[in-house]
Amino acid sequence: MLNAASNATGQPVAPGSLVSIYGSHLADALIQASSVPLLTKLGNTSVTFNGIAAPLCFVSSGQINAQVPWEVTGSTADMVVTNGGAPSAPVSVPLTTAGPGIFVTGSQAIAYGNWDYVFAAAPGAIPGLITHPARIRDPATLVILATGLGPVDLPVETGNSAPIDGILRRTVTTPVVKVGGVQAQVVFSGMSTYVGVYQINIVIQPGTPTGDAVPLTITMNGITSNAPTIAVSND
Prior knowledge:
By secondary structure, the protein is mostly beta strands. It contains no helices and 26 strands.
């Protein structure tokens, strides 16, 4: 089982985060969630962590995408997948308060301008999409989508998106975000509008390297995320 954004091996996962579970005969068919709150059973498949049912995004024979319930506590959790009434052997999963992962498409980070929603990539880098580099010192901010950033200051129900009530759900701990090794200014870090997905708004600082493949990382709780790339420009 891995962080669904980074697929980093050997990294613990945080309650509230999205994870990918790999195996065989996990489900009888490919089924995607079609509504929110997410259901805890898709077809004949369900997942529990320490006996707590996990909301499911997607199930197939070889992979399940799920949310680790916010209610799971401790340093480890026993995960069980049940298909057709037959439970798997429990798998011990290491837990942490925050274990960040950045969502990607290929090697490109899912990061876009807060004013135009255009991905921060070189022109033509993502087929079918208009893209352009992120700008250093852009006050409109660059939005990064991630999972595993840990608890937020106001509760969010397991399996549900953050309420659209005008109240932001901010992470209890502010992440350290680096672009090309240079620390960015974090303007906001909190829940987005989809289950288990966080967004970080940053301003890229002077001195940041420019180019079409500048690495982006998030560090929290002593854990550094995967390092996908973005395009950065002074223009």
